[in-house]
Write a structure and sequence with these properties.
It contains seven helices and five strands, in the order H-E-H-H-H-H-E-E-H-E-E-H. It has 158 residues and is an alpha+beta fold. The chain is globular and about 45 Å long. The two termini are 28 Å apart.
Amino acid sequence: MASRKLEDLHPVTREKAKAFLQRAKEIGIEVLIYCTYRSPEEQEVLYAQGRLEQVGWTLEELNRRRLKLGLWKLTEKEARRKVTNARAWQSFHQYGLAFDCVPLAGGKPDWDNFEAYEKLGEIAREVGLEWAGNWERFRELPHFQDIETFQKIVRRGK
C-alpha cells in the first residue's frame, strides 16, 4: 500500500509539500495527503486497472495482486475504470516527487469540492508544484507533482 508520509518524498518536494499544506491551512482548507511514495508494483497494478485485456490479466489476477499489496478487491465494474496512464517508473510517485491529496470537510474527504481543488491548484503553482487538474489529458484533481525537481534530479542524473 502506498505511503502517506511526507518523509517518503524527496527532500525538495517535501519542503514544497509542507509549504503547500501551510498555505492551504492559512486560507482555511484542511487537506489530507493520502499518497506520497508508491512502489513500482503498486503502480503497475493501478495501470492494469481498466486495461485487463491489454495487459493479459484476469480480474482474479488483478485482485490477487491488489490484495498482496494491501489494496482492496475490485468489482468487475470498478476494474474497468482507468485510474492512471502511468506505468511503473513513469509516475512521479516512484521517485518521491508527487503526492495525492483531498480537501476535507468536517474531517471527511470532500472529493467533489472542485472550488477547493482549484484553490489548491493555485497554491501548488505558488510553491513550485504542477497540478494535474490543469492537464488536458487525464485530469487528476488530487495529483500534485514536482516537475522542477524531476528535471533537475532524475533527467539530469544529479
